[in-house]
C-alpha cells in the first residue's frame, strides 16, 4: 500500500510515503488511526463519533489530530463537499510490521530471534508470577491511643 511517488501540493513536491514511523505517533494520533483502519475512510465527524464512545473529545481536537497525521504523511485526505475524508496510508498490519521492525533494529541489533527470546523470557516470568503469587501483607491496625479510645467511648455513650 505504501507508494514512493511524489505529489504536488501547495506548489511543492512532496513524497507520498509516510515520513514518520508509527512509533513516532502520539497516543491520540494512534487512537484516531485505530478508529480509521476498520472504517477504511472517514470524515472527522465519523472518527470523532467513534472515539466519543470510549472517551469524549472536542471535535476540533480530532480535526487537528487528523490534520497532523496528514502533514506527517500517515493519512491522505480528499475534499468531499465541505469536509475532508481521510484514509490511512498503511494498513494496521503494515503499521504493526513496521513498528516491530523498528523495535528489532533499535533494541535487538536487527535480530528477530533476540526479540523472540526476550518475549519468551518475559512470558515465562509472567507465568511464574501467576503460579507463585506474592503473599498479601496482613492488614496492620493503627496503634490505639488513650485519647482515641476516649473519643470513641464518648461518642458511643452519646449515641446510646
Numbering strands along the chain, what is their spatial order in the largest sheet?
3-5-4
**End-to-end gap:** 78 Å
What's the CATH architecture name of the largest domain? Orthogonal Bundle
What is the fourth-level CATH superfamily of the largest domain?
A: Winged helix-like DNA-binding domain superfamily/Winged helix DNA-binding domain
Bin the strand percentage.
5-15%
Mean pLDDT: 78
Spell the H/E element sequence: EEHEHHEEHHH
Helix fraction bin: 40-55%
Rounded to an integer in angstroms, the radius of gyration calculated over CA atoms is: 27 Å
What's the number of domains?
A: 2
Top keywords for this entry?
160 residues; alpha+beta; Arc Repressor Mutant, subunit A; two-stranded antiparallel sheet; 6 helices; disordered N terminus
Outline the structure in words.
- The protein is of the alpha+beta class and 160 residues long.
- The chain folds into two domains: 6-90, Orthogonal Bundle (Arc Repressor Mutant, subunit A), CATH 1.10.10; 93-130.
- It is built from six helices and five strands; from the N terminus they run E-E-H-E-H-H-E-E-H-H-H.
- It has helices spanning 27-39, 44-52, 59-71, 92-107, 112-131, 146-159; strands spanning 6-9, 12-15, 42-43, 75-80, 83-88.
- The strands form two sheets. The protein has a three-stranded antiparallel beta sheet with strand order 3-5-4. The chain has a two-stranded antiparallel ribbon with strand order 1-2.
- A hairpin with a 2-residue loop joins strand 4 and strand 5 (83-88).
- Helix 2 (44-52) crosses helix 3.
Amino acid at each position: 500500500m505504501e507508494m514512493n511517488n511524489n505529489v504536488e501540493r501547495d506548489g511543492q513536491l512532496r513524497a507520498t510515503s509516510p515520513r514518520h514511523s508509527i512509533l513516532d505517533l502520539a497516543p491520540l494520533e494512534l487512537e484516531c488511526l485505530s478508529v480509521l483502519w476498520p472504517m477504511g475512510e472517514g470524515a472527522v465527524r465519523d472518527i470523532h463519533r467513534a472515539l466519543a464512545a470510549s472517551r469524549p473529545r472536542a471535535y476540533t481536537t480530532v480535526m487537528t489530530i487528523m490534520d497532523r497525521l496528514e502533514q506527517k504523511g500517515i493519512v491522505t485526505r480528499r475534499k468531499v463537499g465541505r469536509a475532508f475524508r481521510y484514509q490511512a496510508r498503511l494498513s494496521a498490519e503494515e503499521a504493526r510490521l513496521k513498528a516491530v521492525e523498528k523495535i528489532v533494529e533499535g533494541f535487538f541489533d536487527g535480530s528477530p530471534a533476540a526479540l523472540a527470546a526476550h518475549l519468551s523470557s518475559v512470558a515465562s516470568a509472567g507465568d511464574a508470577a501467576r503460579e507463585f503469587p506474592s503473599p498479601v501483607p496482613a492488614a496492620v491496625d493503627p496503634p490505639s491511643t488513650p485519647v482515641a479510645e476516649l473519643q470513641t467511648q464518648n461518642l458511643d455513650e452519646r449515641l446510646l
